[in-house]
Amino acid sequence: MGHRGERASCLPLLFLLLLLLAFCRGRVVRVPKGPLIRVMGTEVVIPCSVSDYDGPSEQNFDWEFSRETDFMRIVSTWDSTFTSEEYQKRVGNGDIKLRRSSNDAVELVIRNIQPTDQGRYKCSTPSTDATVQGNYDAEVQVKVISDGLSVSGSKARSSMSLRLSEGDSFKLRCSATTTSPEHTHLHVTWQIKSGSTWRDILSLTHEGKFHPGPGYEERYRNGDIRLDTGANDTYRLSVSQASSMDGGAYRCLVSEWVRGADSSWQKIQEKSVEIATVAIQRTALDVVISTSNVSVTERDSLDLTCNTTTDRSGIFQVEVMWYFSASPDDTLSDAQVLLSVDRDSVVRDSTLISLSHVDRNSYRLLVRDVDVEDSGYYYCQAAVWVPLHNGSWHKVVERTSVPVSVVVTALEPDYEVFLNASKTPKFSDDPTELNCRITNAQDTEANIRFTVSWYYRKRLRSDDVVTEELLAAMDADWTLLLGDRSRDRTQNGEIIFSKKAADTFSLRIQWTSESDRGDYFCVISAWTRHRNNSWIKSKDVTSASVSIFWATQDYTLTVEAVKLKPFFVAGHTFEMTCKVSSKNIKTPRYSVLITAEKPLTDQSNPNGTTRIISLNQDSVVRLEDWTDQTRVDGVVLEKVQENEFRYRMYQTQISDAGLYRCVVTAWSPGGGGMWREAVNGLSNPIQIDFQTSGPVFNVSVHSDNPTVYQGELADLLCIITTEGMALEPDDMSFDVSWFAVRSFALDREPVLLASLDRRGIVTQSRRNGSSDLSLERISPLEFRLRVHGCEDHDFGNHYCIVTPWVRSATGVWQREPDIKAKPIFLSVKMDVLNAFKYPLLIGIGLATVIGLLSCLIGYCSSRWCCKKEVQETRRERRRLMSMEMD
Questions:
Q1: Are residues 261 and 295 in the same domain?
Q2: Residue 360's CB: how many other CB atoms inside 10 A?
Q3: What residue intervals traverse the membrane (predicted)?
Q4: Same domain, 844 and 809
Q5: Which of 363, 383, 409 finishes a domain?
Q6: CATH number for 497
Q7: Nearest CA to 237 among 210, 211, 202?
Q8: Contact 110, 36 (CB under 8 A)
Q9: pTM to 2 decimals?
Q10: 8 found inside a domain
C-alpha cells in the first residue's frame, strides 16, 4: 500500500514536468544583441534566424523599422506588397534588400546607411506551427555614428616611386587617425600588390598583436621586416635585404573595430591608401674563367684565372670559390671544393694548390705538379656581399662560371713486349709453356709497375671473326683475376700463371688438350703511382700471337681373340688369348672385359650377353655378372704381356656354351695423373659348343584336385620325365622352385613360393596369411608342394622351374638349362554349409529355451496372482475408502 501511495503522488509531478517542457518548447527568432554601432555611409548587414519551428523547412521573414514607437514595414521574403511607401524606392534600387543564407536564416542588407536609419529593427516570422509557442519576432537597436577615420601617406595622398638595388633597405610610412565618438580600435595592415592581387606583409591588429602574412614569417622572425608606430599616429614599415620579390605597389590598409554587446569585436569600416611603388634592380654579376679548354702534361703546373664583373656600387665584397668535378653533369653539391677566398680576403689553400687575388676583379688558381687524376672540369663561383644596418653582411647575388675542361696527359713509359713458347706439345696432354718478356724499356722510373694479361683466340678455318677470351689478368697490386675459360683448371693446378723475373711473365699448361689449340698473346700494362699512392694504368702494349698447334690422327685399335685348344669336352678348362695393337695413342694402357653371348633358351640371361670378368688399366681384376657361388674361382683373367691377355674358365659346363669376346678399351695419360679413355675395340667371337647325346628333360605340373575349399589341403606335383639316354638316379639331381601368379591371366609378376636345391635344402619365401607351405621330394623325378589351410590369396596359376644337374663320365656335375612347366590354376572356394552349421544349431537351441521359459512364467502368474480372495480384499478396501471419504 505504501508503494501505491508513492506512485500516486508522483503522477501529478510528472504531469507538471511534461506541461513545463511543452510550454518551454516553441519557435525561437534570433537577431544580434544590440546596440549595433555602424558608421555612416557603410554597408550594414543584420542577420536573423529562426529555430524549433513546425511546418515547411523554408521559413519567411518580415523586417520592420521604428525610430520611436511606430514600426514601418521595410521588406518581406514572401509578400512583395509588404514594403511601406517610404522604403519602396530604396528597396527598388537595391539599397535595401534581403539575402537568404539558408532555409531558416536571412540577412537584411542596407547600403550607404544614414543617420535617419538609426533606430530599432524587428525581424518577424509568420506562424507555421500547429500551436502558438515561443517568440515570433526579435528586435535589435542600430546606432549610426559619423565617419571619423582618416588614412594618409607620407607625402600628401600621391604615392611615391622608389628604385632600389638588390639587398638595399627601405622604409614606408602611413598615418591613421579616428575621431569616432565610440571607443574604437584600429587594425593596420601593410600589403604589396603582385600581379592583380594584394598580399599581406605585416599587420598590427586591433588587439595590439603583430601578425606576418603568408611567406613573411621567417623574415619577420629575423627582423628583416618590422612595423613600428611613431608620433602623429604613424605606422612605419621597414624592409631589410630587399629582393626581387619585394618589388611592387605598397598600400596601407586600416580598419576600425568596436566591441559589441556580446564582447566580440566587430569591424565597422575599412580604408586604404597606396603609399609607394618599389622597383628592385637585380645586381648584375659575370663570372668568367680567362682560358678555355686546357691540356697539361703530367708533372707540369695548371694556371687558371677567374674574372668577376658587377654593376654594384657602394660598399660590397666579393667571395670566390673554386670547384672540381670529374663529370660536367655533376652539380656543385657533388663537386669538390678546391680553394676559396672569403669577403675578408682570407685565402684557404694547400701545399700543391694556391689561390691569389691578382686585382679587385681577378682571382688566380695555381695547381702545381698536376696528376692524371686532376683531369676534369673546373668551376669558379663568385658571390657579392653588402653590409646591413646592424653590421652584418648579406649575400645579394651569386654566379657560377662555365666549366673549363682540363686534360692531364700522362707521361707514358717506352717499352716493347716479346712472346715466345719455351715448350710446345707434340701430342695431346703434353705441357705448353709461354713466356711474355718486357724488352727495350726506357724512361721507366721507380714509380712505374708492370702487369700482364693473357688472352686466347680460337682458330677457325672459315673467315668467321673470333673474339679473344681472357685467361687471366693482373691488378696493379699483382692480384690475379681469372677468366671463365681458365678458372677451374687454374684452381685444379692444370694451368699455372707465374712471374719468373722482373721483366718476364709465364703461362704453363700442364696437360694440353685439343681444346687448347689456338693463338695466344699477352698484354703488358704499365701502371704509374700518383700523389695519393694510388696506381693508374698509363699504357698497354700487346705482343704478337703464338700459335699452339699439332697434327692429330684418328686413334686405331685392333683386338684378336685366339682359342688355344681346338676341341674339348665338358669339365675341361677353356682357354683363349686376346692380342691388342694400337696406333696414334701416346703410351697406351688397356682394360679388358670378357663377355659371353648365351643362347636365348637360357632363362637366367634373357638378354643374351653376359659380362663375366674384367681387368682395368691398372691390372685390377673384377667379377662382373658371374654369380655362380660354387664356381667363384672358376674364371681367371690375367695380363701376359703389355698387349696380350689370357682368359681361362675351369670345369666348363654345358650351360657355358656360347660366343666369347674380348672388349678392350685403350687409355692414354690425362691431366693430374688421371687416365683418359681414347678408343674401344671388340674382338672376334670364340665359340664353346659341347657335342653331347645326354637325356632330354621335360617338366609338368599335376594336381588331383585343383579346386579346394578354404582351410583344406592342396597338393601340387612337379613331375620330371626323361627322353633319350637313360641315367642312373644317382647321376641326376634337380633344383626345383615353385612360383605363383595371383591372377586368372598371366599378367602379373610371379611370386616365389618355395625352392628345393639339389642338396635337399628347402627355402620358403615370407608369407602374410595363416596358410603354410611344404615342399618335399617323393620320388627321384617327383616333387610335391602342399598348401596347408588354404586361404583366398592362395589362388592363382602355379608352376615349377627345374634346373637339372647331370654327372659326366669324369665325375663332374654339369648344369643343364632351366625348364619351366606349364602352369596349373588353383581355385579356393568357401564351404557355405560348414559356415552356417554351428550358428543355425545355436539359434534353434536358444529359441527353444526362451519358449519354455515363457510358458513357465505364464503358468506361475495364473496360479498365484489371479485368486478370488485377492479380488474380494480389493473390494473391501475400496469400500472402506469410500466411507472414509464421506
A1: no
A2: 7
A3: 838-859
A4: no
A5: 409
A6: 2.60.40.10
A7: 202
A8: no
A9: 0.43
A10: no
Q: Please return the burial class of 390, using the count of CB atoms within 10 Å of its CB with bins 0-12, 13-18 and 19+.
A: exposed
Distance CA 754, CA 775 (A): 7
pLDDT for 18:
40
Q: Does residue 820 sit within a domain?
A: yes
My answer on whether 99 and 181 are in the same domain is: no
With 0-12 CB in 10 A as exposed, 13-18 as middle and 19+ as buried, what is 398?
A: middle
Domain boundary among 528, 548, 568: 548
Q: Which three cell numbers stand for residue 743?
A: 591372377
229 and 333 housed in the same domain: no
Name the strands in the sheet holding 28-30, side by side, starting at the edge strand that comes first in the sequence: 28-30, 44-51, 105-110, 96-102
Measure the CA–CA gap between 828 and 712, rounded to whole angstroms.
9
Work out the angle at residue 75's Cα, subtended by the Cα atoms of residues 73 and 78, and round it to the nearest 5 degrees. Answer: 115
Residue 8: helix, strand or coil by DSSP?
A: helix
User: In the chain, how long is the greatest CA-to-CA distance?
Assistant: 166
Would you place residue 14 in the very low, low, confident or very high pLDDT band (cuts 50, 70, 90)? Answer: very low
Residue 673: predicted pLDDT: 66
Q: Which helix (H) or strand (E) holds 466?
A: none
Give a yes or no: residue 12 inside a domain. Answer: no
Average pLDDT over residues 620-640: 86
Contact between 294 and 300 (Cβ < 8 Å): no
598 and 703 part of one domain: no
Task: Locate 23 and state its grid cell.
Answer: 510550454
Do 756 and 775 fall within a single domain?
A: yes
Report the candidate in 518, 515, 545 with the shortest Cα–Cα distance to residue 429.
Answer: 515
Top mean pLDDT of 201-205, 617-621, 882-886 is at 201-205
Query: CB of 244 within 8 A of CB of 185?
Result: no
The single residue listed with the C-alpha cell 683531369 is 375
Helix (H) or strand (E) holding 219: helix 217-221
Query: What is the DSSP secondary structure assignment for residue 192, as one 8-state letter?
Result: E
Q: Which residues lie across from 442 on neighbouring strands?
A: 414
pLDDT of the residue at 210: 94
Could you give the 3-state DSSP secondary structure of residue 426? coil
The pLDDT of residue 444 is 61
One domain, residues 809 and 743: yes
Band (113; pLDDT cuts 50, 70, 90): very high
What is d(CA 594, CA 610) in angstroms, rounded to the nearest whole number? Answer: 9
Considering the chain, what is the average pLDDT of its residues?
83
Per cent of the chain over pLDDT 90 is: 30
Torsion-angle region of 369 (φ positive above 0: left; ψ -120 to 50: alpha; else: beta): left
CB 121 within 8 A of CB 138: no
* Domain tally, the chain: 7
Residues 581 and 707 in one domain: no
Beta strands 225-230; 234-239: pairing state: antiparallel
Alpha carbon of residue 675 to chain centroid: 47
Of the two residues 389 and 82, the one the predictor is more confident about is: 82
Cell (9 digits) for 151: 588614412
Its domain, for residue 649, covers 556-688
- SS3 string, 595-616, reads EEECCCCCCCCCCCEEEEEEEC
H or E segment and range at residue 73: strand 72-76
Residue 419 is predicted with a pLDDT of 92
Instruction: Give domain status of residue 16, yes or no.
Output: no
Buried b (16+ CB within 10 A) or exposed e, 185-210: ebbbbbbbeeeeebebbbbbbbeeee
Please give the Cα distance from 355 to 338 (Å, whole number).
9
> What would the pLDDT profile of 827-864 be if each residue is shown by its tens digit?
888 766 665 666 778 888 888 899 888 888 888 887 77
**H or E stretch covering 484:** none
Q: Which three cell numbers stand for residue 111?
A: 547600403
Among residues 371, 155, 434, the alpha carbon closest in space to that of 277 is found at: 155
The SS3 assignment for 171 reads strand
Tell whether the torsion through CA atoms of 510, 515, 518 and 522 is positive or negative.
Answer: negative
CA angle, 539 then 545 then 551, to 5°: 165
CA distance 839 to 833: 11
